[in-house]
Amino acid sequence: MKKQKTIALLLLLLMITPCLRAQKKELSQARSYIKSGKDFDKAEKLMTDLLERDAANRKNEKIYLTWYEAVTKQYEAANEKLYLKQNYDTAAFFNLTRRLYSIAETLDTLDAQPDEKGRVKLRYREDNAQQLDLLRLNLFFGGTYNLRRENYQTAFDFFETYLEAADKPLFTGYDYHKKDKRMPEAAYWASYAGYKMQDAPRTLRYFEKAVRDTSKACYAIQYACEAYRWQQDEGAYLQMLKRGFETYPDYAYFFPRLVDYYQAREQPDSALYYADAALKSDSKSEIFLLAKSLALLNLERYDECIKVSEQLIAQSDSLAEPYFNIATAKLNQILALDRQNQPRIYRQQIRKLYMEARPYMEAYRKLAPDEKRKWAPALYRIYLNLNMGKQFEEIDKVMRQL
After folding, report:
1. 115-153 pLDDT per residue, tens
2. CA 272, CA 46: separation in Å to the nearest integer?
3. Cα atoms in the 13 Å half-sphere on the side-chain side of 149
4. Residues 191/203, Cβ–Cβ less than 8 Å
5. 100, 73 contact by CB (below 8 A)
6. Nearest to 384 by CA among 356, 360, 351
7. Contact 354, 385 (CB under 8 A)
8. Beta-carbon-side half-sphere exposure of residue 220 (alpha carbons within 13 Å)
9. Is 0.90 topped by the overall pTM?
10. Is the dihedral of CA 158, 159, 162, 164 positive or negative?
Protein backbone atom coordinates (compact mmCIF):
# COMPACT_ATOMS: atom_id res chain seq x y z
CA MET A 1 0.00 0.00 0.00
CA LYS A 2 2.81 2.38 0.93
CA LYS A 3 4.55 1.63 -2.35
CA GLN A 4 1.36 2.36 -4.32
CA LYS A 5 1.00 5.77 -2.61
CA THR A 6 4.59 6.60 -3.46
CA ILE A 7 4.05 5.71 -7.13
CA ALA A 8 0.87 7.81 -7.25
CA LEU A 9 2.71 10.78 -5.75
CA LEU A 10 5.51 10.45 -8.29
CA LEU A 11 3.01 10.32 -11.13
CA LEU A 12 1.31 13.46 -9.82
CA LEU A 13 4.63 15.28 -9.61
CA LEU A 14 5.47 14.20 -13.14
CA MET A 15 2.18 15.67 -14.34
CA ILE A 16 2.57 18.94 -12.41
CA THR A 17 6.18 19.65 -13.34
CA PRO A 18 5.59 20.27 -17.08
CA CYS A 19 2.63 22.51 -16.21
CA LEU A 20 4.75 24.54 -13.83
CA ARG A 21 7.48 24.83 -16.44
CA ALA A 22 5.01 26.03 -19.07
CA GLN A 23 3.50 28.50 -16.59
CA LYS A 24 6.94 29.84 -15.67
CA LYS A 25 7.89 30.15 -19.33
CA GLU A 26 4.74 32.12 -20.22
CA LEU A 27 5.12 34.40 -17.21
CA SER A 28 8.70 35.07 -18.26
CA GLN A 29 7.64 35.76 -21.84
CA ALA A 30 4.92 38.13 -20.69
CA ARG A 31 7.37 40.10 -18.56
CA SER A 32 9.70 40.33 -21.53
CA TYR A 33 6.90 41.83 -23.62
CA ILE A 34 6.15 44.35 -20.88
CA LYS A 35 9.81 45.34 -20.46
CA SER A 36 10.16 45.81 -24.21
CA GLY A 37 7.61 48.63 -24.08
CA LYS A 38 5.40 47.04 -26.72
CA ASP A 39 3.24 43.96 -27.32
CA PHE A 40 1.41 44.56 -24.04
CA ASP A 41 -1.66 42.93 -25.57
CA LYS A 42 0.38 39.77 -26.22
CA ALA A 43 1.45 39.72 -22.58
CA GLU A 44 -2.20 39.95 -21.55
CA LYS A 45 -3.15 37.14 -23.91
CA LEU A 46 -0.55 34.85 -22.37
CA MET A 47 -2.03 35.44 -18.91
CA THR A 48 -5.66 34.99 -19.94
CA ASP A 49 -4.70 31.77 -21.73
CA LEU A 50 -3.09 30.48 -18.53
CA LEU A 51 -6.24 31.25 -16.56
CA GLU A 52 -8.50 29.56 -19.12
CA ARG A 53 -6.28 26.52 -19.48
CA ASP A 54 -6.15 25.43 -15.86
CA ALA A 55 -8.49 26.39 -13.02
CA ALA A 56 -5.61 25.94 -10.57
CA ASN A 57 -3.91 28.95 -12.14
CA ARG A 58 -6.72 31.15 -10.88
CA LYS A 59 -5.15 31.03 -7.44
CA ASN A 60 -1.76 32.21 -8.68
CA GLU A 61 -1.21 35.86 -7.72
CA LYS A 62 1.75 36.19 -10.11
CA ILE A 63 -0.51 35.65 -13.09
CA TYR A 64 -2.91 38.36 -11.98
CA LEU A 65 -0.09 40.75 -11.13
CA THR A 66 1.41 40.29 -14.59
CA TRP A 67 -1.99 40.60 -16.23
CA TYR A 68 -2.71 43.78 -14.29
CA GLU A 69 0.61 45.28 -15.31
CA ALA A 70 0.06 44.37 -18.97
CA VAL A 71 -3.34 46.09 -19.01
CA THR A 72 -1.97 49.09 -17.09
CA LYS A 73 0.69 49.54 -19.77
CA GLN A 74 -1.98 49.33 -22.48
CA TYR A 75 -4.00 51.96 -20.64
CA GLU A 76 -1.03 54.30 -20.33
CA ALA A 77 -0.24 53.95 -24.03
CA ALA A 78 -3.88 54.59 -24.98
CA ASN A 79 -4.12 57.55 -22.64
CA GLU A 80 -1.04 59.08 -24.21
CA LYS A 81 -2.51 58.72 -27.69
CA LEU A 82 -5.74 60.37 -26.62
CA TYR A 83 -3.83 63.16 -24.91
CA LEU A 84 -1.85 63.77 -28.10
CA LYS A 85 -5.11 63.62 -30.07
CA GLN A 86 -3.94 60.62 -32.03
CA ASN A 87 -6.37 58.06 -33.39
CA TYR A 88 -7.43 55.45 -30.84
CA ASP A 89 -10.51 53.31 -30.25
CA THR A 90 -12.43 55.14 -27.52
CA ALA A 91 -14.49 52.07 -26.63
CA ALA A 92 -11.29 50.03 -26.21
CA PHE A 93 -9.87 52.73 -23.93
CA PHE A 94 -12.88 52.55 -21.61
CA ASN A 95 -12.78 48.74 -21.68
CA LEU A 96 -9.19 48.81 -20.39
CA THR A 97 -10.36 50.64 -17.27
CA ARG A 98 -13.08 48.11 -16.62
CA ARG A 99 -10.61 45.23 -17.06
CA LEU A 100 -8.24 46.85 -14.56
CA TYR A 101 -11.05 46.95 -12.02
CA SER A 102 -11.94 43.33 -12.61
CA ILE A 103 -8.35 42.11 -12.33
CA ALA A 104 -7.59 44.20 -9.25
CA GLU A 105 -10.73 42.99 -7.45
CA THR A 106 -9.83 39.35 -8.08
CA LEU A 107 -6.23 39.95 -7.04
CA ASP A 108 -7.45 41.64 -3.87
CA THR A 109 -9.56 38.59 -3.03
CA LEU A 110 -6.50 36.34 -3.36
CA ASP A 111 -4.33 38.80 -1.43
CA ALA A 112 -6.84 38.80 1.44
CA GLN A 113 -6.56 35.05 2.01
CA PRO A 114 -4.99 34.21 5.37
CA ASP A 115 -1.69 32.31 5.47
CA GLU A 116 -1.15 29.05 7.32
CA LYS A 117 -1.07 30.96 10.62
CA GLY A 118 -4.30 32.82 9.87
CA ARG A 119 -2.55 36.11 9.15
CA VAL A 120 -3.68 38.48 6.37
CA LYS A 121 -1.07 40.74 4.84
CA LEU A 122 -2.48 43.02 2.16
CA ARG A 123 0.37 43.78 -0.21
CA TYR A 124 -1.43 45.29 -3.19
CA ARG A 125 -4.67 46.86 -1.96
CA GLU A 126 -3.47 50.35 -1.12
CA ASP A 127 -1.57 50.98 -4.36
CA ASN A 128 -4.18 49.41 -6.62
CA ALA A 129 -7.09 51.19 -4.95
CA GLN A 130 -5.28 54.50 -5.21
CA GLN A 131 -4.58 53.98 -8.91
CA LEU A 132 -8.11 52.82 -9.73
CA ASP A 133 -9.71 55.64 -7.77
CA LEU A 134 -8.03 58.05 -10.19
CA LEU A 135 -9.54 56.12 -13.12
CA ARG A 136 -13.02 55.79 -11.60
CA LEU A 137 -14.66 58.41 -13.81
CA ASN A 138 -13.71 56.37 -16.87
CA LEU A 139 -16.24 53.77 -15.76
CA PHE A 140 -18.99 56.38 -15.60
CA PHE A 141 -18.11 57.91 -18.94
CA GLY A 142 -17.66 54.46 -20.46
CA GLY A 143 -21.26 53.82 -19.49
CA THR A 144 -22.59 57.05 -20.99
CA TYR A 145 -20.46 56.52 -24.11
CA ASN A 146 -22.13 53.16 -24.72
CA LEU A 147 -25.58 54.52 -23.90
CA ARG A 148 -25.24 57.09 -26.66
CA ARG A 149 -24.42 54.26 -29.06
CA GLU A 150 -27.35 52.19 -27.77
CA ASN A 151 -25.00 49.47 -26.48
CA TYR A 152 -27.22 49.00 -23.46
CA GLN A 153 -25.75 45.74 -22.15
CA THR A 154 -22.20 47.14 -22.23
CA ALA A 155 -23.40 50.42 -20.72
CA PHE A 156 -25.06 48.55 -17.87
CA ASP A 157 -21.86 46.59 -17.22
CA PHE A 158 -19.87 49.81 -16.86
CA PHE A 159 -22.35 51.37 -14.45
CA GLU A 160 -22.55 48.11 -12.51
CA THR A 161 -18.75 48.07 -12.07
CA TYR A 162 -18.86 51.72 -11.02
CA LEU A 163 -21.60 51.12 -8.43
CA GLU A 164 -20.42 47.76 -7.10
CA ALA A 165 -16.92 49.11 -6.44
CA ALA A 166 -18.39 51.04 -3.52
CA ASP A 167 -18.95 47.75 -1.66
CA LYS A 168 -15.71 46.00 -2.63
CA PRO A 169 -13.12 45.43 0.12
CA LEU A 170 -10.53 46.79 -2.30
CA PHE A 171 -11.96 50.29 -1.79
CA THR A 172 -12.37 50.16 1.97
CA GLY A 173 -12.13 53.67 3.36
CA TYR A 174 -13.12 55.45 0.16
CA ASP A 175 -16.77 55.60 1.28
CA TYR A 176 -18.15 56.16 -2.20
CA HIS A 177 -21.75 55.84 -0.99
CA LYS A 178 -21.39 59.11 0.91
CA LYS A 179 -18.63 60.92 -0.92
CA ASP A 180 -19.33 60.10 -4.57
CA LYS A 181 -22.10 62.44 -5.73
CA ARG A 182 -22.37 60.64 -9.07
CA MET A 183 -23.62 57.40 -7.52
CA PRO A 184 -27.35 58.23 -7.89
CA GLU A 185 -26.88 59.32 -11.51
CA ALA A 186 -24.90 56.16 -12.30
CA ALA A 187 -27.69 54.09 -10.72
CA TYR A 188 -30.28 55.93 -12.81
CA TRP A 189 -28.41 55.28 -16.05
CA ALA A 190 -27.99 51.62 -15.09
CA SER A 191 -31.77 51.41 -14.57
CA TYR A 192 -32.32 53.14 -17.89
CA ALA A 193 -30.04 50.66 -19.68
CA GLY A 194 -31.94 47.77 -18.07
CA TYR A 195 -35.25 49.36 -19.12
CA LYS A 196 -34.10 49.77 -22.72
CA MET A 197 -33.17 46.07 -22.77
CA GLN A 198 -36.58 45.25 -21.22
CA ASP A 199 -34.63 43.41 -18.54
CA ALA A 200 -36.67 43.66 -15.34
CA PRO A 201 -34.01 42.49 -12.84
CA ARG A 202 -31.43 44.94 -14.21
CA THR A 203 -33.98 47.74 -14.31
CA LEU A 204 -34.75 47.20 -10.64
CA ARG A 205 -31.26 46.35 -9.34
CA TYR A 206 -30.20 49.88 -8.45
CA PHE A 207 -33.65 51.46 -8.25
CA GLU A 208 -33.42 52.79 -4.69
CA LYS A 209 -30.13 54.50 -5.53
CA ALA A 210 -31.53 55.78 -8.83
CA VAL A 211 -34.42 57.68 -7.21
CA ARG A 212 -31.90 59.68 -5.21
CA ASP A 213 -31.12 61.46 -8.46
CA THR A 214 -34.03 63.86 -7.96
CA SER A 215 -33.75 65.33 -11.45
CA LYS A 216 -34.62 61.93 -12.97
CA ALA A 217 -36.48 60.13 -10.17
CA CYS A 218 -39.87 60.26 -11.90
CA TYR A 219 -38.39 58.38 -14.86
CA ALA A 220 -36.72 55.84 -12.58
CA ILE A 221 -40.08 55.11 -10.94
CA GLN A 222 -41.67 54.77 -14.37
CA TYR A 223 -39.03 52.21 -15.39
CA ALA A 224 -39.64 50.30 -12.17
CA CYS A 225 -43.40 50.22 -12.90
CA GLU A 226 -42.70 48.79 -16.33
CA ALA A 227 -40.29 46.23 -14.87
CA TYR A 228 -42.94 44.96 -12.43
CA ARG A 229 -45.46 44.87 -15.26
CA TRP A 230 -43.07 42.71 -17.30
CA GLN A 231 -42.76 40.40 -14.31
CA GLN A 232 -46.57 40.34 -13.96
CA ASP A 233 -46.16 41.41 -10.33
CA GLU A 234 -49.48 43.23 -9.99
CA GLY A 235 -49.04 44.18 -6.34
CA ALA A 236 -45.59 45.71 -6.81
CA TYR A 237 -46.75 47.43 -10.01
CA LEU A 238 -49.67 49.08 -8.20
CA GLN A 239 -47.54 50.16 -5.24
CA MET A 240 -44.97 51.69 -7.56
CA LEU A 241 -47.68 53.54 -9.48
CA LYS A 242 -48.95 54.95 -6.19
CA ARG A 243 -45.45 55.94 -5.16
CA GLY A 244 -44.94 57.72 -8.45
CA PHE A 245 -48.29 59.50 -8.31
CA GLU A 246 -47.86 60.63 -4.70
CA THR A 247 -44.48 62.13 -5.49
CA TYR A 248 -45.18 63.38 -9.01
CA PRO A 249 -48.97 63.83 -9.40
CA ASP A 250 -48.55 65.93 -12.55
CA TYR A 251 -46.25 63.50 -14.35
CA ALA A 252 -48.11 62.08 -17.33
CA TYR A 253 -47.27 58.41 -16.73
CA PHE A 254 -48.61 57.53 -13.26
CA PHE A 255 -52.11 58.97 -12.96
CA PRO A 256 -53.69 57.56 -16.16
CA ARG A 257 -52.40 54.06 -15.42
CA LEU A 258 -53.45 54.23 -11.79
CA VAL A 259 -57.00 55.24 -12.76
CA ASP A 260 -57.11 52.69 -15.59
CA TYR A 261 -56.02 50.01 -13.12
CA TYR A 262 -59.01 50.69 -10.85
CA GLN A 263 -61.49 51.24 -13.67
CA ALA A 264 -60.50 47.93 -15.26
CA ARG A 265 -61.19 46.20 -11.94
CA GLU A 266 -64.49 47.99 -11.46
CA GLN A 267 -63.29 50.00 -8.49
CA PRO A 268 -64.52 53.50 -9.45
CA ASP A 269 -64.41 54.68 -5.84
CA SER A 270 -60.62 54.25 -5.84
CA ALA A 271 -60.39 55.93 -9.25
CA LEU A 272 -62.39 58.86 -7.87
CA TYR A 273 -60.12 59.07 -4.82
CA TYR A 274 -57.04 59.52 -7.00
CA ALA A 275 -58.82 61.90 -9.36
CA ASP A 276 -59.72 64.15 -6.42
CA ALA A 277 -56.17 63.86 -5.07
CA ALA A 278 -54.77 64.84 -8.46
CA LEU A 279 -57.12 67.82 -8.77
CA LYS A 280 -55.62 69.26 -5.60
CA SER A 281 -52.40 69.80 -7.53
CA ASP A 282 -54.13 71.09 -10.69
CA SER A 283 -57.84 71.87 -10.43
CA LYS A 284 -58.22 72.54 -14.17
CA SER A 285 -56.35 69.56 -15.57
CA GLU A 286 -58.41 68.01 -18.37
CA ILE A 287 -56.99 64.55 -17.66
CA PHE A 288 -57.86 64.74 -13.96
CA LEU A 289 -61.34 66.14 -14.57
CA LEU A 290 -62.08 63.55 -17.24
CA ALA A 291 -61.03 60.76 -14.88
CA LYS A 292 -63.33 62.18 -12.20
CA SER A 293 -66.19 62.44 -14.69
CA LEU A 294 -65.82 58.79 -15.67
CA ALA A 295 -65.49 57.62 -12.06
CA LEU A 296 -68.66 59.50 -11.09
CA LEU A 297 -70.46 57.99 -14.09
CA ASN A 298 -69.43 54.49 -13.01
CA LEU A 299 -70.48 55.24 -9.44
CA GLU A 300 -73.94 56.24 -10.77
CA ARG A 301 -73.51 59.76 -9.38
CA TYR A 302 -74.97 61.17 -12.55
CA ASP A 303 -75.67 64.77 -11.59
CA GLU A 304 -72.11 65.18 -10.33
CA CYS A 305 -70.78 63.54 -13.49
CA ILE A 306 -72.75 65.98 -15.63
CA LYS A 307 -71.48 68.96 -13.62
CA VAL A 308 -67.83 67.95 -13.96
CA SER A 309 -68.28 67.17 -17.67
CA GLU A 310 -69.88 70.57 -18.29
CA GLN A 311 -66.87 72.16 -16.60
CA LEU A 312 -64.63 70.30 -19.03
CA ILE A 313 -66.65 71.41 -22.04
CA ALA A 314 -66.51 75.01 -20.82
CA GLN A 315 -62.72 74.74 -20.66
CA SER A 316 -62.34 72.97 -24.01
CA ASP A 317 -65.28 72.18 -26.27
CA SER A 318 -63.16 70.01 -28.58
CA LEU A 319 -62.87 67.13 -26.08
CA ALA A 320 -65.14 64.25 -27.08
CA GLU A 321 -65.49 62.22 -23.89
CA PRO A 322 -67.29 64.84 -21.72
CA TYR A 323 -70.12 64.92 -24.28
CA PHE A 324 -70.37 61.15 -24.20
CA ASN A 325 -70.36 61.06 -20.39
CA ILE A 326 -73.16 63.64 -20.12
CA ALA A 327 -75.33 61.83 -22.68
CA THR A 328 -74.65 58.46 -21.04
CA ALA A 329 -75.45 59.85 -17.58
CA LYS A 330 -78.82 61.11 -18.84
CA LEU A 331 -79.58 57.82 -20.61
CA ASN A 332 -78.74 55.95 -17.42
CA GLN A 333 -81.08 58.25 -15.47
CA ILE A 334 -83.79 57.21 -17.93
CA LEU A 335 -83.05 53.54 -17.22
CA ALA A 336 -83.39 54.22 -13.50
CA LEU A 337 -86.82 55.80 -14.09
CA ASP A 338 -87.86 52.92 -16.37
CA ARG A 339 -87.13 50.51 -13.55
CA GLN A 340 -89.75 52.30 -11.44
CA ASN A 341 -92.34 50.87 -13.88
CA GLN A 342 -94.52 53.97 -13.65
CA PRO A 343 -94.57 55.30 -17.23
CA ARG A 344 -97.45 57.75 -16.69
CA ILE A 345 -95.65 59.52 -13.87
CA TYR A 346 -92.24 59.72 -15.53
CA ARG A 347 -93.17 59.98 -19.25
CA GLN A 348 -92.49 63.71 -19.58
CA GLN A 349 -89.33 63.53 -17.49
CA ILE A 350 -88.02 60.65 -19.58
CA ARG A 351 -88.76 62.49 -22.85
CA LYS A 352 -87.01 65.57 -21.49
CA LEU A 353 -83.89 63.50 -20.65
CA TYR A 354 -83.83 61.97 -24.15
CA MET A 355 -84.02 65.45 -25.65
CA GLU A 356 -81.22 66.65 -23.38
CA ALA A 357 -79.04 63.62 -24.17
CA ARG A 358 -79.43 63.98 -27.93
CA PRO A 359 -77.22 67.05 -28.64
CA TYR A 360 -74.42 65.71 -26.44
CA MET A 361 -74.35 62.32 -28.13
CA GLU A 362 -74.53 63.96 -31.58
CA ALA A 363 -71.64 66.21 -30.61
CA TYR A 364 -69.70 63.13 -29.49
CA ARG A 365 -70.38 61.52 -32.88
CA LYS A 366 -68.91 64.54 -34.70
CA LEU A 367 -65.83 64.63 -32.49
CA ALA A 368 -65.27 60.86 -32.49
CA PRO A 369 -66.70 59.54 -35.78
CA ASP A 370 -64.78 56.26 -35.58
CA GLU A 371 -66.30 55.33 -32.21
CA LYS A 372 -69.43 53.93 -33.83
CA ARG A 373 -69.86 51.19 -31.26
CA LYS A 374 -70.24 53.83 -28.57
CA TRP A 375 -72.46 56.45 -30.21
CA ALA A 376 -74.53 54.37 -32.66
CA PRO A 377 -76.50 52.27 -30.10
CA ALA A 378 -77.10 55.37 -27.97
CA LEU A 379 -78.39 57.47 -30.88
CA TYR A 380 -80.51 54.53 -32.08
CA ARG A 381 -82.22 54.50 -28.70
CA ILE A 382 -82.61 58.30 -28.61
CA TYR A 383 -84.07 58.63 -32.12
CA LEU A 384 -86.39 55.69 -31.56
CA ASN A 385 -87.86 57.14 -28.38
CA LEU A 386 -88.14 60.65 -29.81
CA ASN A 387 -89.86 59.35 -32.96
CA MET A 388 -87.25 60.90 -35.24
CA GLY A 389 -87.90 58.80 -38.34
CA LYS A 390 -85.32 60.22 -40.73
CA GLN A 391 -82.50 60.17 -38.17
CA PHE A 392 -83.58 56.73 -36.98
CA GLU A 393 -83.39 55.26 -40.49
CA GLU A 394 -79.90 56.64 -40.97
CA ILE A 395 -78.63 55.31 -37.65
CA ASP A 396 -80.34 51.97 -38.26
CA LYS A 397 -78.17 51.54 -41.37
CA VAL A 398 -75.10 52.32 -39.31
CA MET A 399 -76.13 49.74 -36.72
CA ARG A 400 -76.54 47.08 -39.38
CA GLN A 401 -72.93 47.62 -40.45
CA LEU A 402 -71.47 47.11 -36.97
Report:
1. 888 888 999 999 999 999 999 999 999 999 999 999 999
2. 68
3. 12
4. yes
5. no
6. 351
7. yes
8. 24
9. no
10. negative
